[in-house]
Amino acid sequence: MPELPSSLGALKDSHYSEQRISGRSVKEELRQNLICKLQRGEELFPGVVGYDDTVVPQIVNAVLSRHNFILLGLRGQAKTRIIRMLTSFLDERLPYIAGCEIRDNPYRPICRRCRDLIAGRGDDTPIAWLARDERYVEKLATPDVTIADMIGDIDPIKAARRGEDLSSELTVHYGLLPRANRGIFAINELPDLAGKIQVGLFNIMQEGDVQIKGYPVRLPLDIMLVFTANPEDYTARGKIITPLKDRIGSEIRTHYPLALDQGLSITQQESWTERTSPIGLTTPKYIREIVEQLAFLAREDKKVDKRSGVSQRLPISVLENVVSNAERRALKAGENLAVPRVLDIYAALPSITGKLELEYEGELKGGDNVARELIRTAVGKVYSSYFDGVNVSQIVQWFELGGSLKLDDGLDSPAMVRQLGKIQGLMEKTAALGLGASEPDPVRASAAEFILEGLYAHRRISRNEEVGFMAGERPKREPPPEGGEGRRPPRRQFN
Known about the structure:
Elements: H1 8-13, H2 18-22, H3 26-40, H4 55-64, E1 69-72, H5 79-84, E2 93-97, H6 112-121, E3 127-131, E4 136-140, H7 147-150, E5 152-154, H8 156-162, E6 172-174, H9 176-179, E7 183-188, H10 195-199, H11 202-206, E8 223-229, H12 233-236, H13 242-247, E9 250-253, H14 260-270, E10 280-281, H15 285-300, H16 313-333, E11 337-338, H17 342-347, H18 350-353, H19 360-365, H20 367-387, H21 393-400, H22 413-421, H23 426-429, H24 441-457, E12 461-464, E13 468-471
Parallel strand pairs: 1-8, 1-9, 4-7, 7-8, 10-11
Antiparallel strand pairs: 2-3, 5-6, 12-13
Helix pairs in contact: 14-15, 14-16, 15-16, 15-20, 20-24, 22-24
């Protein structure tokens, strides 16, 4: 890579011409680089799954339209990740006047310090360079944010040190917004920002300037503004005031994964399951599917608050906990392979209950009970996808003839396989999961236990804490009709 110019004179003699640097705004820069990516067929937001046909086209339209935009969606929908990835649409390097707090354009300075510096040193004015990531400023909106934080304020200490009058522009301490000049400024959870602070964003969005503490100074900042918000925040904690909302060019709705495969891809990508361990770790596909199905079911459950949402962090955290429980069991038993079981999902309740906001009915039932019901339903759905049409009557019959089996999540795999092998026809049915007879014990134990949990989920067998798996309860007999045990009612006679 050739050496970058370090002075204004050298910059003028380079290919970073005045027309290229001064004649193109940040929004135009984003637009042109996005067009190049589209023409080359590049992936725009790598790692963001499930938005290719919904959210991404709307973001592309907003950038091509040079809009400030807001991503509106529930928690855990990759809003922050997306806005941070917008820096990939910026130039790799951008020159600015060295030492400038607001990264002034060398060809068109807007702050008093830089104008005076160029007037005094001319082509010897020192030039520094901004990388892409340095041109992104993010602020989490909180009620205690002030105008001074966002826009700026008078700095009496700066005035005293430099011997400047307080009325001088050189005594200004710039806030986050001016410091994001020539870059992207993102505000997370916009409704949490106090109304009077939102008002302070008006000028920069419409007129492209700011005023600081009543100074008659105009700062025509060059900024791309992006925001995120949760729809629930409009009523729960705050709101986006109407004039500010009117100035936001595009409102883009995000969403949770629309299909189970999308959720599985996200969870596999984000969860810490491929970890360094003294033993091998293998997570069966059906375990991953149960964990993901759990999140899908929670989003539809009436006992879970839909306005709060069920974050994609739930299946990520649950899967990590499930793998850790299997790892802990294998380490204690001295095994060299850890394979999660359905029992490990129940052991991961702490990573479920903390992520569910419950409705009144759910609060009455209790978080643990709601989570257990969700797990059982998820197991039933996944079991049906593998064993629909498979004859398991032999297994059910074993329990109906008086068999029972209590399994402990701490039981080592060989002992568990021996117990499960007593159940007539059980091990043979693991072939429906793609397993052969030569599979290691941890894999076989997990698969067979999944079958039992699936039968329990479909109420073919029962389970309780004391006995474990046992025969299902037979339906209660109808009470005998009046007139005696087992007697039919008299027939009506017709003449």
